[in-house]
Amino acid sequence: MLSESLLRKFDQLIARYPLKRSALVPLLMYAQDEVGYVSEEVIAEVAQRVDVRPIEVVEVIGYYSMLHRKPVGKYNVQVCTNISCMLRGADEVFEHACKKLGIKHKQTTPDGLFSLEEVECLGACCGAPAMQVNYDFYENLTAEKIDAVIDELKKNEPSSKM
Fold it and tell me: What is the reported pLDDT for 76?
């Protein structure tokens, strides 16, 4: 299920914390990066390694918008629509992203390339409206900026270079 190198990384991460449980989120993030989402097998493995019940792992996953129980697209687009972003046009930005990608909240494009989510807060209020694509942040969004980001990601795909 999980690679040997990831399991070694798990051991290293757990050793860095005074309480095993403190490694829970980093373990889930690394596992999700390898598997593509947090599967039932990942939940069981992580729970066993940090000495918690699987339901406690599920509760943590439910709290963090960057952790997913189902596969998401290669590029997970998260648009903040919390108050600071909303006041600066996030609703329109999110609607534009929906139209550009042809999907709605928590959906994935048929080619599996993009997923889209409306999220509560990305901690980028000063640059509102903001979005995150995987681990990259984009601020002061406009429809044009959304188009440019999505077009650039598509352009970098092997099947798009034909």
Answer: 94
Three-point CA angle 129, 90, 116, nearest 5°: 100
DSSP string, 114-149: EEEEEES--S-GGG-S-EEETTEEE-S--HHHHHHH
Q: Model-level pTM?
A: 0.80
| 23-32: Cβ within 8 A, 24+ apart | 23/49, 23/50, 24/50, 24/52, 24/57, 24/60, 25/60, 25/64, 25/67, 28/57, 28/60, 28/61, 28/67, 29/66, 29/67, 30/6, 31/2, 31/6, 32/67, 32/68
pLDDT averaged over consecutive 10-residue blocks of the chain (162 residues)? 94 97 96 94 97 97 90 94 95 97 96 94 93 95 97 85 45
pLDDT of residue 66: 84
Phi, psi of 108 (to 5 degrees): -125, 140
Residue with tokens 């990259």: 136
Cα 2 from Cα 64, distance rounded (Å): 22
Q: Is the dihedral of CA 30, 34, 35, 37 positive or negative?
A: positive
